Amino acid sequence: MLRVFAGEGYSPEVMHFVKQSGFDDIYREEDLAVLATMKNDYMAFSYYASRTLDSDPIPEGTPVNNYMLFGDKPNPHLKATEWNWQIDPLGFRSIITRYYNDWRLPVFPIENGIGVIEHWDGENPIADDYRIAYHRDHINAMREAIFEDGAQVIGYLGWGLIDILSSQGDMRKRYGVVYVNRENHDLKDLKRVPKKSYDWLKRAIHSNGEEM
Pick from 75, 196, 74, 201: which is nearest to 138 by CA? Predict the structure, then answer.
């Protein structure tokens, strides 16, 4: 799919699969010609974790997009969150470098963060050193992709500045550097409380990454 946004149109392999599957009538030749002329200014992507695949349990003939249904296997060398999202800064560096090498377009990570179950005691800021470590390690991995691998990166956005409902509508999964005092079914007072990571992120930004 990324090939399309890099101005190369759909690959012959994809088009062959579409034809074999009997779906070639969903495209018109003029539409494909237009798609082949488009090209993004940059490649944006979200990155939170990496996943590993064990090919042994995958039944023969399984479509590629269903491999993870059978072969998903935790990497024993990585730590994980409560949701079993494995923390892998090296994977972040790898995908930045690969995208830039493959498509020769600037890269822009627009989502990156760690979701954790957190509770505020009503007085003290949450000491989320794990979030500081996550962002520090991933930003440093991005720095290595830029200065050691030669990737062109135009920005970095952590997800997110404040705690909000996750994509599954669950307030327990908190990503923010600012705590929002509410639960799934109890709005409480909605008070905003900066976490320890808030001050860290502020220093990191003001020092252009020198104080991390």
Answer: 201
